[in-house]
Amino acid sequence: MLKITLDHIIELLEHEKYEELKEKINQLHPGDAAQIINELPAEYQVKVFSYLSPEIASDVINDLHDELREDVLESIQQNRLVEIIDEMDSDEATDIAAELADHQLKDVLQKIDKEDSDEIKQLLVYDEDTAGGIMQKEIIAVNKEMNRAEMIDHIRAIYDDVEKLYYIFVTDKENKLIGILEVSKLLLCHDEMKAVDIMDEDVISAPVGMDQEEVARIFRKYDIYILPVVDKENHLLGRITVDDIIDVIDDEASEDVYKMVGLENEDKVFTSPLSSVKKRLPWLTLNLFTALLVSSVVGIFEGTIARLSFLAVLMPIVAGLGGNSGTQTLTVITRGIALGELTLHNTYRAIVKEITVGIINGLLIGSVAMLIAYLLKGNIILGAVLGISMVCNMFIAGLVGSSIPVVMKTLKIDPALASSVIITMLTDIGGFATFLGLATLML
Amino acid sequence: MLKITLDHIIELLEHEKYEELKEKINQLHPGDAAQIINELPAEYQVKVFSYLSPEIASDVINDLHDELREDVLESIQQNRLVEIIDEMDSDEATDIAAELADHQLKDVLQKIDKEDSDEIKQLLVYDEDTAGGIMQKEIIAVNKEMNRAEMIDHIRAIYDDVEKLYYIFVTDKENKLIGILEVSKLLLCHDEMKAVDIMDEDVISAPVGMDQEEVARIFRKYDIYILPVVDKENHLLGRITVDDIIDVIDDEASEDVYKMVGLENEDKVFTSPLSSVKKRLPWLTLNLFTALLVSSVVGIFEGTIARLSFLAVLMPIVAGLGGNSGTQTLTVITRGIALGELTLHNTYRAIVKEITVGIINGLLIGSVAMLIAYLLKGNIILGAVLGISMVCNMFIAGLVGSSIPVVMKTLKIDPALASSVIITMLTDIGGFATFLGLATLML
Which of B245, B276, B288 has the CB atom closest to A357's CB atom? Predict the structure, then answer.
């Protein structure tokens, strides 16, 4: 699809051929235009965006990196912003609206089309992580009594406003959702057929307050592309499309791995350094305190270390392997929870499994470590101390790596928050305490 | 959608009410049936699957956990397997075919419909991680000269074989892809219109050998639901649907976080313990050697530790914080690469940013650590040694956490393989060496 390369754009910019640039960039698919602008050197990004027609810009702006979109919104002229928002679907317009300063928002809502402005106001009410927060108001709904010709007329009348028209929703006279109808079925059916005759009654819908991660699970489970959103009385409110769900899935996947290492969602590759520092600092401070806790456990055995300094040389081995085993278990379990594979019915089995794996791996790796320690230091008891403490620590790794996220899930705390810092602290403490404790007793 | 609960199913099983069970389970949406079977106690799973009608079973089997699907395929009767595969779309049938033993596969291919068997044979040729490996042969393609009535007749003739019929592909007489046509457009257009008049010429397609991760990026970038797949001469071969792309995105997200902690893809919550042990062992062995390397660096300073045993108490702090900072940077960078945010044009900026963040965080956290060490031990030089080594180590963390995955990407090695074990080894060595080295010099 790409019809112009990044290098060529930069060349045009450097030679100040702005007219040519404007023409070329507006011929691109919005997806390509967004990618190019995201990749441009920082000094050109806002400038190139300003050359986009409102129509293209309306599809590009939500695909810009967060910080860049903020820059664009700060420097954009109010009239241009209104033109761009006028071109947007209601869900995307709402995302932008939510990022505007209050006075900017108020002004925009006055200047755009009344109907669009009402829709945005309705959508702004919902939490952005819920079905309501990601749905759009652009839908085609027909009354169940409509016949084929009436339905086609109805579709034709509003066709231009609705993209991705694969399904029509069927409602009763109170606007309650009672069925769904594939457009291809409408294409093939006879003229006298009514919506109610050809619709699929087994319609899957999402309540407006449902968490977006749960909504993503519905898309996964039923392999659907479009999902109607309803209120408590089953009134049709909007629809969610699968392209927005892909964004949700990407975000949630990032979020899970981010939380595991103590990162915040907004901390991306091109977040400004100071902003990243601010976001990571609380977690590193927590980490400093867990490290001090670990250090104080080692401190209990300072006398032993003063006597047998080689223990300090070997102790990182016990802690290191325990930490990594624990992180592995944690990853398997939190990913299993995220994808819905792990439920209350089968957790016990999963925990037992992880502990078993920890013990077996501990026995195998511990034996090798024991042998190596014996060969290096010529001390069989030291070898035994190292081996035994590794088995203990990998047992601890299996136990805490699996049970902590599960317990957190049961307590309705996000299991991804059972970050590696907590697991590593526990395996560090477990490793140092068993190794140095056994050494104090046996050597 | 769910019309029967897991508990109710278990009750029916315990009371041996198999007829009722069979009736209830076959009324479920396949997505719900798969979920229930996945969650059942292990002894019931294969049994309940055997009660599914071939039609439901064909949609359920690919949603079972890997190990369970293996169990099902091992115990299934050949005739039933043939019935099930007969009901499947070509892409899913191929996935199952790829898992069958050679004699099983040969027999199945003989017994199913000739056309289906040919399609499966064609699809089995492609690598399962490519566009060819995830595409299906069920498509509707029309010749560009067809008019509306001919197209509708054509669709009607093969309508039952193709699900998710939102787009029709338009080809020339050599079966080369020249356009795409939304079904809703066909619904609304005039009778005399030809395919070539109403099609969209700007059709996005994937070459059959494209990596599935790249295919997923196309779906993301262009917000599409259906993607045609073509060979080098642009002949239309098949299509990829967005539900399969969601599976790809889930798998790739799991794969990335798995590789980071040294896990293999197939190591899931319910993989058998022995199989998990086998999969994790090579990586833990590597980890043992990196730990020995770290230990040997500490060994250089054993004399210093023997003299100043409190250094062994404090050294885990330097290594711990460095390791976690490094993992944070690694996560931001590999996630940025995976989502396509990081490209060759902007890597330098990203590395500089991560190093800056490392140094600033090192200065802040290092100062606090310095203060704490001074308060605890009353030794200002010891505090300075701790603080300075923390700054150095968090600089190292930023440097290696960002540059290693980038270098690997440039060398076309999967950057997610820059696993935390390598980064942690480097920050461990960096931390211990600077801390103990400075201590040896200054204390």
Answer: B276
